[in-house]
Design a protein that fits this description.
261 residues; alpha/beta; TIM Barrel; 8-stranded parallel β-sheet; 15% strand; globular
Amino acid sequence: MDFGRLPDLRYVDFRLPPDHPDTARVLARAQSLASVAALYVGCPIWTNKEWLGSYFPLGAKEPDFLKYYAQQFNSIELNTTHYRIPDAPTGRRWREAVGPGFKFCPKLPRSISHERELYNTDALTLSFTRAVQELGDNLGTCFLQLPPHFGPENLPRLERFLLDWPAEVPLAVELRHPRWFSDRELANSVFDTLEALNKTLVITDVAGRRDVLAQRLTTPVAFLRLNGHGLIPSDYDRADAWAERLANWYAQGLQTAYIFI
């Protein structure tokens, strides 16, 4: 992930900010729901040949990479769907390659988010949601990554898109434009809208954009994208801090966390 990446990390304050005040309220409401807490950890890809001999057996063939990946992780940030909507046989093949507890979190196609910017996307959205539902119980939370130039002036368009989104397909939203976060009143309004529509706010932890680390849960689901830097010491410190924060959220009523590294 290039978003928020910096060449020099010496002056970055990686400490996690305190929770948004409304996070406790969202989690408290979820505590009354009878459900087993779940934790899913994964990566953005499974076709990594550098894992041959470690995560994957030496000599493993690329068609089997997903099977071996699913033996190490229980989720994937499914970026391939950002570039092409899979056909039904592909979705079924992915599902057959993983275990029953594995979750795919498909990224919405760039044709929806970046090219059309949520304009006139009904047909594409229908095609995408039908395709990912082929994953059955292995479908986790889909996520909409909005481009960095998609600012608050487009809020009505975003709201309309979310209202039209099929309720049976879980969705998270990643905001990137700085003005979504710099105006506190606006930010709270957007967060409240996501909460009202039962859509999850993506939490992105990157070096160069600490402002997007809002720590506001809009559903009892945490969807975290954590951008590391080659396992330098600060990466371990950040992982420890997140483990502590997530434990606190689970104690308050968090139902599910997706962590992508």
